[in-house]
């Protein structure tokens, strides 16, 4: 069996401040590509620890353990929901993948955006695969989302990326929402039944992963095609997207996995907390190590939470 090593970290710190006002306004017209969700496979100890940590479910975020049936496959994960983005956690037994394997799901919010994106990419000479996924609802398979994936990484890549467009049938029948014309396929609407007003977690702000160099380069190509701004920072590829969201991929030929996840908070926390969760740590500000963003009008500081998985080695 192959050796898999996740990037070793002794702690994680989370630091963001109040979200700029424009982050809470509807997306501007056009086929913008947003961060939809991130998934990662944790070691079983950390997975069980976060699933049973009272603070995580009682006050930090809306959480759910869920088994999904789609296109003849099924997977079981633990979810932390924000208002427009969420975190999906697996243990190896529930995902059929290895510890450290991760995925970045992007999302569009205008009907037909996937096909327009694929057409532009193909015209520029890129190989992009478009697929349709269904979900089982009340014993029936209904259209769930249409997705596109830029082909570039190796078949055994520990990093997956794709962009998805929710389908009208799922937004109405699957979620039980009142039909509208045109149908609202936004991430906010998709998560409206999951997000809990009053929770600390608002949305994912930044993601940092360690991946083989070829995956770093493949991600850069995809992010550029999705309209994100891509830059190099030393050995890392950094992509900046809508809603002040950042994804950083550190190239490493021996290590892979989630390094840091910064989660923006809906309000300023009452006090700093540091909770050990398996091989990870959850730190909630205020914290002197945090820089973050400041609203020049209100001066209201909201420190964020950051999660990091500690080193795991499997033979």
Quick structural gist:
With 315 residues, the chain is an alpha+beta fold.
Word description of this protein:
The chain has 315 residues and is an alpha+beta fold. It has one domain (4-314). It is built from 7 helices and 18 strands. The strands form 3 sheets. Strands 3-4-5-2-6-9-8-7 form an 8-stranded mixed β-sheet. An 8-stranded mixed β-sheet has the order 11-12-13-10-14-17-16-15. A two-stranded antiparallel ribbon has the order 1-18. β7 (128-137) and β8 (140-150) form a beta hairpin. It is globular. The termini are close together. 44% of the residues are buried.
- What Rg, in angstroms, do the CA atoms define? 19 Å
Determine the structural class based on helices, strands and strand pairing: alpha+beta
Strand order of the largest sheet: 3-4-5-2-6-9-8-7
| Low-pLDDT residue intervals, each spanning 5 or more residues | 1-29, 287-303, 310-315
Percent helix range:
10-25%
Shape: globular
In percent terms, what proportion of residues is strand?
Answer: 35-45%
Number of domains: 1
Largest sheet: 8 strands, mixed
Number of helices: 7
Report the mean per-residue pLDDT as an integer. Answer: 80
End-to-end C-alpha gap: 6 Å
Order of helices and strands: EEHHEEEHEHEEEHHEHEEEEEEEE
Give the number of DSSP strands.
18
